[in-house]
Design brief:
The complex is a heterodimer of chains A (92) and B (96). Chain A has one domain. With 92 residues, chain A is mainly α. Chain A has 4 helices and no strands. Helix content of chain A is 87%, strand content 0%. Chain B is 91% helix and 0% strand. Chain B has 3 helices and no strands. The longest helix of chain B is centred in the C-terminal third of the chain and has 38 residues. The chains are: A mainly alpha (92), B mainly alpha (96).
């Protein structure tokens, strides 16, 4: 069981490659989604390893939060690009 | 750990590894979205099924099934919104 948790941590750091070296903003969000899925899996492994079933509740709430986080980042990005476009039109 | 658990774990970790490899290697963002979502969701499903079989208890089973359902619903929605947003952004960039 400990071997698989170590492997999950290694995979999490491997999937952070696009988080630092993404050409577009959407690459970073895609990588963020993958990292949060790994964190959910790690919490589930810890819950089974330590025999504490309340850690699974934390995993459910974390899944909900990561979903809301990515949608909020996307909305913020679209809002910013729209306001930039409007300012470009107004400036000349 | 039984043999079935180890089988599910090895299957899930192989699928997740190839998904991350596709995320790193592939050249276009749509190919990366495809690799990440398909492999990530299937690998998560296999690993969580292995965890259920490893510890057969009612509370663990119900909660892990809830997590599986949630990941299955939210991951395609996130990919869909990312692809639509990127397409619109690219279209505006080409027009201006």
């Amino acid at each position: 069981m400990t071997f698989f948790i170590t492997l999950l941590f290694i995979f999490m750091f491997l999937s952070m490659y696009r988080l630092f070296k993404g050409p577009a903003f959407h690459d970073r969000l895609l990588s963020l989604n993958l990292v949060s899925v790994h964190i959910i899996l790690i919490i589930c492994f810890f819950s089974v390893l330590f025999e504490r079933s309340f850690l699974l509740d934390i995993a459910i709430v974390y899944a909900l939060l990561s979903f809301a986080e990515i949608i909020a980042f996307l909305k913020l990005y679209e809002k910013n690009s729209e306001s930039e476009k409007e300012s470009e039109v107004e400036s000349p | 750990m039984s043999v079935i658990t180890i089988f599910f774990f090895v299957l899930g970790f192989t699928i997740i590894f190839f998904g991350i490899l596709g995320t790193i290697i592939l050249p276009d963002i749509f190919l990366r979205l495809h690799a990440s979502t398909k492999c990530g969701v299937t690998g998560t499903f296999n690993i969580l099924i292995g965890l259920i079989i490893d510890r057969l208890a009612w509370d663990y089973t119900i909660k892990i099934c809830l997590i599986i359902l949630f990941v299955f619903f939210t991951a395609p929605i996130i990919t869909h919104m990312l692809a639509i947003s990127y397409l619109r952004h690219k279209h505006e960039k080409e027009n201006t």
